[in-house]
Design a protein that fits this description.
The structure holds 2 protein chains of 2 kinds. Helices cover 72% and strands 0% of the residues of chain A. Chain A contains 22 helices and no strands. Chain A has helices at 2-17, 21-74, 77-80, 92-95, 103-119, 122-134, 137-145, 150-162, 169-172, 181-194, 202-205, 212-224, 234-239, 243-256, 262-267, 274-286, 291-299, 305-318, 324-333, 337-350, 353-365, 368-378. Chain A is flat, with a radius of gyration of 32 Å. Chain A starts with a helix and ends in a 6-residue tail after the last helix. By secondary structure, chain B is of the alpha/beta class. Chain B has 5 helices and 5 strands, in the order E-H-E-H-E-H-E-H-E-H. In chain B, helix 4 links the parallel strand 4 (77-82) and strand 5 (100-103). Chain B is globular.
Chain lengths: 384, 130
C-alpha cells in the first residue's frame, strides 16, 4: 500500500511537471488554500472543543466549590462571633480534600475567590484572602509568574494583586521594566497596589516609558488605592532620565499640590525639550507658584507657541495681579488668536477689582473681534 | 418570614447573598435578570427587593421605577447593590425611589443591618398608616 501511494505521488509529480506554468501556479494556490482552510477549521474545532470541556468541568465542580466557600467563609460561625479574621481556623478536612490537589480545580477556585473578593469587603473579604493563602493557592499564582509566556505572567500578577498578596521586589521589580507593554503595565499597577511603603520604587529603575493611556490607568490606581504612601515626586523630576516618568510625576505633583516640589519643577524651565517645559509650566500654574511668574515673563518671548500658551494659562491660575499689564499687552498686540484668547481668559480669571476695571476699559476701546473674545471668556457657561 | 427578592446577573454574588440572607432567617427568591425580576415581582408579595444596576433585559433603575409606579407594590423596600459609583446614577436611583444604595464590594454585616433597619422602618410606617 505504501508503494502504491509512493507511485501515485510520483505520477502526480510527473504529470504536474509537464503542465503549463499558469496551471502549475493555480494548482499550488489551490492546494495552499485547501490546506489553510483545513488547518483553520481544525484550530477552530479544537478551541471550541477545549472551551466546551472547560465549561463542562467548571459547571461540574462549581457547586462543590461554592458550597465549600459558603460553609467556610460566608456562614463561618467564628466570623459571626466576631473572632478576628487572623485567628479563624478553617476546617482542615474540608479544605485539604484530594480534589483540591488537581490543578484545574485549583484554577477554578482561584477565579471564584477573586470574584467573591470583588463583591465582598470587610471581614468576609479578608476571610476569602485567608482561605486563598491557607489553601496555598498563592503558590499556583507565583508559579504562573515564572512561566515563559507573558500572558500567564500577567495572570499570576493579577491574581496576587486582587488577593492582596505580597510579592517580593526581586520577583516583581524586573517585570515593571519588561519589554512587553502589557506585562509592564500589570506589574507596575500591582507594585503600586501591593507595596505600601515605597509604591513608586520602580520609577528608579524604569527605562521603558509609561505610555499616556497607561498613565491614566496608573493615575486611577494611585488615587483610589487606600493607605498609599505618597512620596515627594520632585526627586524623579530632578534625577530621572526617563522622560515619561518626569512628565507623569509633574502631573502627580500638580494633583497632590506638592509645594515643596516647586524649585525642582522650576529647574525644568531651562530644559531643551519644549514639551517638558510646557508640562512644567502647566504644573507650576496648577501649584499657584507665585515665584515662577517673574521667570515666565522673562522667558515668554523666547518660547514656542505651546509654552507661551501654557505661560498665559498659568498666569491666570496664579493670578497674583502683578502681571496684569503683561497679559493686557499680549491681548492687545498679539497676532495669534489663541494667544489673545488665553490672555483674555487669564485677565478675567484674576477676578479682582483691578482686573474687572481693566476688562471694562478694554471692552470700551478694543476692536470688535477682541470684544467678542472678551465676551466669550466672560461667559461662565463656556469652559473652552 | 420576610420575603426578599434578589436580582443579580452575577451568579456567584446571587448565591452568596441568598446564603447570607437565608442564614439570617429570610425567605429569598432569586432572579438573574430584569425580565425574570418583573415576573417574580408580579407573582408574589415581597417585603424587600435587592437589585443590581447593570443587568440584561432591564436594568436596576427600570425595576425601581416599575415597582414605584405600581400602587399595589410601591411599599416594597428597595436596596441597590452595584459597582457603579458615579454621583448621577446614585442620585437617579434615589430619585426614582430606591431606599438605600450599597457600592460593591459590600460588607455582609452592613448589608444585614441596612436590611433590618429598612424593614423595621417600613413596618413602623405601615402600622402608622393603619
Amino acid at each position: 500500500m505504501w508503494k502504491d501511494l509512493q507511485d501515485l505521488i510520483y505520477h502526480a509529480y510527473i504529470e504536474f511537471r509537464y503542465l503549463p506554468l499558469f496551471i502549475e501556479i493555480a494548482l499550488v494556490f489551490i492546494v495552499i488554500a485547501i490546506l489553510a482552510t483545513i488547518s483553520a477549521y481544525c484550530i477552530i474545532l479544537t478551541k471550541r472543543w477545549r472551551g466546551y470541556i472547560k465549561e463542562k468541568r467548571i459547571n461540574f465542580i462549581s457547586p462543590t466549590l461554592e458550597d465549600m466557600i459558603t460553609e467556610q467563609v460566608l456562614l463561618n460561625e467564628e466570623l459571626e462571633r466576631k473572632v478576628p479574621v487572623d485567628n479563624i481556623e478553617f476546617n482542615r478536612e474540608a479544605i485539604t480534600k484530594d480534589i483540591y490537589k488537581k490543578k484545574w480545580i485549583r484554577q477554578v477556585l482561584i477565579d471564584m475567590l477573586i470574584q467573591y473578593r470583588k463583591n465582598f469587603s470587610g471581614d468576609v473579604g479578608d476571610l476569602i484572602r485567608k482561605l486563598f493563602i491557607d489553601m496555598n493557592l498563592q503558590k499556583d499564582s507565583f508559579a504562573k509568574m515564572k512561566s515563559m509566556k507573558w500572558e500567564r505572567k500577567i495572570k499570576g500578577v493579577t491574581e496576587l494583586t486582587q488577593m492582596d498578596t505580597q510579592i517580593s521586589d526581586v520577583t516583581i521589580l524586573p517585570l515593571t521594566n519588561s519589554k512587553n507593554p502589557s506585562l509592564r503595565v500589570a506589574a507596575r499597577n500591582a507594585y503600586i497596589q501591593l507595596s505600601k511603603n515605597e509604591p513608586f520604587k520602580f520609577f528608579d529603575i524604569a527605562t521603558e516609558p509609561i505610555l499616556p493611556w497607561d498613565q491614566l490607568d496608573m493615575f486611577k490606581i494611585i488615587t483610589t488605592t487606600k493607605d498609599i504612601a505618597i512620596p515627594n515626586f520632585s526627586r524623579w523630576v530632578s534625577y530621572s532620565t526617563n522622560k515619561s516618568i518626569v512628565s507623569f510625576c509633574l502631573k502627580l505633583i500638580a494633583h497632590y499640590g506638592q509645594q515643596a516640589a516647586i524649585p525642582a519643577v522650576m529647574d525644568l524651565l531651562s530644559n531643551r525639550d519644549h514639551y517638558f517645559r510646557a508640562n512644567a509650566i502647566n504644573c507650576l500654574g496648577k501649584l499657584s507658584a507665585e515665584p515662577a511668574e517673574e521667570r515666565f515673563v522673562k522667558i515668554y518671548n523666547n518660547q514656542p507657541l505651546i509654552c507661551q500658551m501654557e505661560i498665559l494659562k498659568a498666569m491666570g491660575r496664579i493670578a497674583s495681579g502683578k502681571y496684569l499689564d503683561f497679559l493686557k499687552h499680549e491681548f492687545l498686540y498679539s497676532t495669534n488668536f489663541d494667544v489673545r484668547m488665553n490672555a483674555a481668559r487669564s485677565i478675567i480669571k484674576h477676578n479682582t477689582n483691578e482686573s474687572r476695571v481693566m476688562v471694562n476699559e478694554l471692552m470700551a476701546t478694543v476692536t470688535n473681534e477682541n470684544q467678542l473674545i472678551l465676551k466669550h471668556c466672560n461667559n461662565p457657561l463656556i469652559k473652552y | 418570614m420576610r420575603n426578599i427578592l434578589v436580582v443579580e446577573d452575577d451568579e456567584i454574588m446571587l448565591k452568596a447573598i441568598r446564603n447570607i440572607l437565608n442564614k439570617d432567617g429570610f425567605n429569598v427568591v432569586i432572579a438573574k435578570d430584569g425580565k425574570e425580576a418583573f415576573e417574580k415581582v408580579q407573582a408574589m408579595d415581597y417585603d424587600l427587593v435587592i437589585t443590581d444596576l447593570m443587568m440584561p433585559y432591564a436594568n436596576g433603575l427600570e425595576i425601581v421605577s416599575r415597582i414605584r409606579n405600581d400602587e399595589s407594590k410601591n411599599n416594597i423596600g428597595i436596596i441597590i447593590i452595584s459597582s457603579v459609583g458615579n454621583e448621577d446614577t446614585i442620585t437617579e436611583a434615589f430619585r426614582l425611589g430606591a431606599d438605600d444604595y450599597l457600592k460593591k464590594p459590600i460588607m455582609a454585616g452592613e448589608l444585614l443591618i441596612r436590611i433590618r433597619r429598612l424593614l423595621d422602618e417600613k413596618s413602623r410606617s405601615s402600622r402608622k398608616t393603619v
